Amino acid sequence: MSTGPGADSAPAPAAHDSTPPAPKQSMFSSLKIHNYRLFFTGQVISNTGTWMQRIAQDWLVLTLTGSSAAVGVTTALQFLPMLLFGLYGGVLVDRLPKRPLLLFTQSAMGLTGLALAALTLTGHVQVWHVYVTAFVLGLVTVVDNPARQTFVSEMVGPRQLANAVSLNSANFQSARLVGPAVAAVLISAVGSGYAFLINGLSFAAPIAGLLMMRMGDLHKAPRAPRGKGQLREGLRYVAGRPDLIWPIVLVGFIGTFGFNFPIWLSAFADKVFDGGPGMYGTLNTLIAAGSLAGALLAARRGAGRLRLLVAAAAAFGVLEIVAAFAPSVWIFAVLMVLTGMFGLTVNVTANSYVQMATEPQMRGRVMALFMMVFTGGTPLGAPLLGWITDEYGARTGFAVGGAISLLAALAVGLILARVGGLKVKLDLRRGHKHIRFVPDEKRLAPAA
């Protein structure tokens, strides 16, 4: 399979070809950069609040309705704006300065948390309030996601980009270890409202970090001028790059069908293992522990490769299928750690690969497309898998999501192999690698 943008059928842009390979880095090398250190610190605080709100929101909806499908609708509404407007968000990000844009989006996200806190703490919250808040948060995320993704390269520069992307994921997963546990305690003790309040206040940290940055240290990328056809230009750019489009397609399938953990874990905690919010928070924490390990390993590994992306996606699908039929909560818990590790490996590898392979002036639109298919597919997948989970049980719903993820990984792996002039070779002899990719002499011969 193609291992980079230099494949014959998908030549990389000159800007990418001219960048020398990054030297091996320490796990935390990008934290030596002042601006990124401020950004990282602010994000770990707000991410902790975000995870608290996510757990409290899912459990509040389940309590108000008793329906896993309703949890899926909430998740779908939060990600529907990304599906509808994600590409337009990328156009805005390529045109506008990132730091002022992030000051606006982070402030708006904090206000959504405070609004939901006020409704819950006063006892007036209804499920439609949660739906509306989730949708508004999704609208802000349309711009916030690609802005945060591309601002990382402006803070650290190209040589530290892969490391910083991995540390961003480690940051998010570290917060995921703390947030669900704190949320579970708060929900059990005083209800969901205080989790929403803490989340709203937590956005003061990233706002302060953005205001304290040294503007002269930023590696400012060229901004796209205003003009017609910029959305189509971004789509044509990706369509002409098989090494970009197929990893994005794979991430889309994984995000749509494989990352519906709010639906499955709430159903397993409530109906399969007869637990409560404490068990739901614990299961989320275990996934986060595996994800954190995957992020730290990615930080040491550096730039992502397509072989690793496909292998991790296949392993992720297999683990979900196996976990769906785990006979005990202890086995299920161990499998959640491994599932988190491989799921995060898919996300980080695809993210860093796509950013490194994209020209700077196109990065906002490409990353908007990346985030659109990764999170924007949730409005399609979440209600469907929520319905399957309600009708046929949590185990069936989880297994279906894993099976689709596995099939997508196998299909995209074969397509990328064909793009790169490779074919699958089976060797069943003992002591030999049974499945490997080798050059396809028939396809390469006409080019010789």
Automatic annotation (TrEMBL):
Keywords: Cell membrane, Membrane, Transmembrane, Transmembrane helix, Transport. Residues 1-19 have a biased composition (Low complexity). InterPro entries: MFS_dom (IPR020846), MFS_trans_sf (IPR036259), TM_effector (IPR010290). The chain crosses the membrane at residues 69-89, 101-121, 244-267, 279-299, 306-325, 331-354, 366-388, 400-420. It is found in: Cell membrane. Gene3D superfamilies: MFS general substrate transporter like domains. Pfam families: MFS_3 (PF05977). It is a multi-pass membrane protein. The keyword Acyltransferase does not apply. Residues 1-25 are annotated as: Disordered. Its main location: membrane. This is MFS transporter. It comes from Streptomyces koyangensis.
